[in-house]
Amino acid sequence: MDNLCSLTIAQAHEKLRKKEISSEELTQACIDRIAAVDSRLNAVVFNGAEMAMEQAKAVDAAGDFSSPLAGIPYLTKDVYCEAGVPTTACSNVLRDKTYVPPFDSTTTTRLKKAGALSLGKVNTDEFTMGASTETSCYGVTRNPWNTDCVAGGSSGGSAAAVAADECLFALGTDTGGSIRQPAGYCNCAGIRTTYGRTSRYGVMSMASSLDTIGPIGKSVEDLAIILGAIAGKDSLDATTADVPVPDYRKALTGNVKGLTIGIPKEYFVDGMNAEVEGAVREAAKVLESLGATLKEISLPHTEHATPAYYVICPSEVSSNMARYDGVRFGHTTSGAADLRSYYEEARSSGFGAEVKRRIMIGTYALSAGYFDAYYRQAQKVRALIKRDFDDVYSAGVDVILSPVSPTPAFKVGAHQDDPVAMYLEDIFLDSQVMAGIPAMSVPCGFSKDGLPIGLQIMGKQWDEATVLRAGHAYEQATEWHKQKPTL
Questions:
Q1: Distant-in-sequence contacts of 96-105, Cβ < 8 A, 24+ apart
Q2: Which of 22, 77, 105, 431 is catalytic?
Q3: Parallel, antiparallel, or unpaired for β 293-297 and 260-264?
Q4: Which of 12, 33, 224, 376 is deepest in the core (most CB within 10 A)?
Q5: Average pLDDT of 253-271?
């Protein structure tokens, strides 16, 4: 039973269905694994072991494993509200006077309905603002492949937990690559869905027009299973679209014959890591050998994506963070002379440096004298980036390949004094956000130092099925995703 926690969802479901194992045994294996390795990773920030075991016993007693998620333990990024479970966004604003939501997010509600079991909460950059999980009030999450390196961000806790077999899957959020980058750094599969495909209700917002939610898992098939449970219109989230949700598992045919795969020249830039470029180009050859057609393409406005993102995102951060004023809930202060001083003291002492930086940038960009010069211009660039993708897809390209990141995972503290260098970690991950399209990370190799390299697969709006199909075919033809870190 020692290796039960290393199973994929599909493998575990088959064993549960055949009564070869119980949900209680599977859940206990994950709990034991967390106890054994998390002190070296700092991925789990709230351990809900007792709650999870009660749920597992109830699932076993019911004996109904018709749902592929029934009895499957998972971990949740600490921005998803779960009734009765502390939820802090890894910020002292909510941690100092623990916020316990009285309701569930739509996603966790749907997972409960499918029979999945929450093991607790995992680490994230404060209010998801970061690319390394170094801005968390709980401290940095470390990469299971090399604990001197970051696990990525902001869903670093989610990716590290999956890679280390602390759970069978984890929930993340992706605003500017925060699912794809940590998945790539930790040798996991992770997908950002089309904006509006999955509900954001009950998930703490950073940038409302950019945020999406999605899973990180051990295989592409697992991602398909999870998406089948959580995707779809939600009356509680007006940004979700009334678009049919296909059977994603049926799309996993292993066949990519007839697919045209775009290789964008703008994503292979001077200065990027040679091992990363080599691994991604080799992955393209694998897909070509399986029957796909490779086509060089151009996405000319790619270079403007990150600058535009870092105007739009902080602007929306400035708006969303205004609710944390120390009056209704969360961090408070004492001794202020008046209300304005109270706001200043509560927010200054509660928020970390990166959150304050983004609030200040966003407030500046939205101010009366600069709105047209910055925010409006960034939105125009956003439209141009979307048009780039529309033009390529309308010309017959089915999916686009690129690296996830220009380098493997970097050392903890490497960008501590250089926020711009940290922002540039998102250089290959912001265009998809601007366009609102789905994109997935799958493992495609390792550096000479033993660090994972991620392959990014981008698709058309609402066409997660083809993205999953291409990723699954590549996964079946390679062994990278089967590699495990030594802890």
A1: 96/330, 96/331, 96/332, 96/350, 97/329, 97/330, 97/331, 97/332, 99/329, 99/330, 101/202, 103/202, 104/202, 105/80, 105/81, 105/199, 105/201, 105/202, 105/203
A2: 77
A3: parallel
A4: 224
A5: 94
Residue 345: Cβ within 10 Å count:
18
Catalytically annotated residue among 22, 132, 136, 178:
178
In a domain, 422, yes or no: no
Q: Hey, is 375 helix, strand or coil?
A: helix
**Sign of the C-alpha dihedral, residues 361, 362, 365, 367?**
negative
Of 230, 216, 223, give the one whose Cα is nearest residue 153: 216
Strand 452-459 relative to strand 260-264, pairing: unpaired
* CA–CA gap between residue 404 and residue 407 (Å, rounded): 9
Look up residue 418 and give its two tokens: 């250089």
Q: Residues 350, 96: contact at Cβ < 8 Å?
A: yes
Residue 86 belongs to domain with CATH number? 3.90.1300.10
Q: Which domain holds residue 210?
A: 4-255
First and final CA of the chain: distance in angstroms? Answer: 18
DSSP state, residue 137: T
Residue 479 included in any domain: no
411 CB neighbour count, 10 Å cutoff: 12
Phi, psi values for residue 363, rounded to 5°: -65, -40
Backbone angles phi, psi at 304, to 5 degrees: -95, -5
Number of compact structural domains in the chain: 1
Average pLDDT, the chain: 96
What is the Rg, in whole angstroms, of the alpha carbon atoms belonging to the chain?
21
Catalytic residue among 23, 132, 154, 441: 154
416 confidence band (pLDDT: 50, 70, 90): confident
Whether the pTM exceeds 0.85: the reply is yes
The stretch 383-394 carries a mean pLDDT of: 98
- Tokens at 198, concatenated: 């999955």
| 428 occurs within a structural domain | no
**CA–CA dist 170, 159 (Å, integer):** 7
Q: How far apart are CA 456 and CA 450, in angstroms?
A: 19
Residue 400 in domain: no
Q: What whole-number distance in Å separates Cα of residue 399 and Cα of residue 355?
A: 35
Residue 367: active-site member: no
Q: Determine the Cα–Cα distance for residues 180 and 153; give it in Å rounded to an integer.
A: 9
Q: Which two tokens stand for residue 414?
A: 């490497």
- Of the candidates 161, 45, 41, 134, the residue with the CA atom closest to the CA atom of residue 410: 134
154 flagged as catalytic? yes
